[in-house]
Amino acid sequence: MTIFPFDGILNTVKKVQTKAQGDVKGKNMRIPTIYLETTIFNFPFTDDAPQYRADTLRLFEEIKAGKFKPFTSEYVLDELEETKDVEKLNKMKNLITANNISVLLGNDETIRLANLYIKTGAIPEKYSTDALHIAAASVAGLDYIISLNFKHIVKHKTIIETEFINTREGYKRVFIHTPAEVIEHEEDD
Predict the structure, then answer these.
(1) Which of 24, 54, 118, 141 has the most crowded Cβ, counting Cβ within 10 A?
(2) Does residue 18 have a pLDDT over 90?
(3) Is 181 strand, coil or helix?
(4) How far is it, in rounded angstroms, from Cα 7 to Cα 5?
(5) Going from the N-terminus, what domains does the chain have, and what CATH number goes with each?
(6) Is residue 188 helix, strand or coil?
(7) 69 has which bridge partners?
(8) 187 falls in which pLDDT band (50, 70, 90)?
(9) How far apart are CA 180 and CA 54, in angstroms?
């Protein structure tokens, strides 16, 4: 798998093994790999959904702390470029560089798998980029897709149907969750 580190532009190719390992509290523990879908870069800069914003900001804190190995894709970069507000666009791109998020490049296998999701009705053709997000994470062998797209990604039908297709096609299960489902929460006293 080929990915690019993102520093404002796609640059030097580097190969990365997605089965990240880390030493946590003296124990050799596997660090979960996560795919950050486009909505995750938007919510830190919105005021109309304070809980989603708080959860997403906490997710970025946990990424910086090394609790996750983060990835996104060129499909996310393409969607971010559609942002009309240049200041917000720069802030969203800065999240990628500031959090050392690796960018997965599209490939024929990702497109093939996304087309299967569309052909079977798991994701509507009109929202083919959402199929590409799931396929990119699946082909890369990542553990989680983190999204706040409730229409076509974080949706029971999508999760069940893409999981079935992934299993049939020889890919492991990719868990699809919101930030709230993967971050640590402070216990209430």
Answers:
(1) 118
(2) no
(3) helix
(4) 7
(5) 2-7+20-182 (3.40.50.1010)
(6) coil
(7) 33
(8) low
(9) 9
Taking the CA atoms of residue 150, residue 154, residue 156 and residue 162 in that order, the dihedral angle to the nearest 10 degrees is: 130
Chain-wide mean pLDDT for the chain?
88
Pairing of strands 102-104, 2-5: antiparallel
How far is 176 from 166, CA to CA, in rounded Å? 13
Confidence check: pLDDT of 23 > 80: no
Alpha-carbon distance 19 to 112, whole Å? 23
Secondary structure tally for the chain: helices H, strands E: 8, 9
The token duo for 126 is 């009109």
Query: Are 33 and 71 spatial neighbours (Cβ–Cβ below 8 Å)?
Result: yes
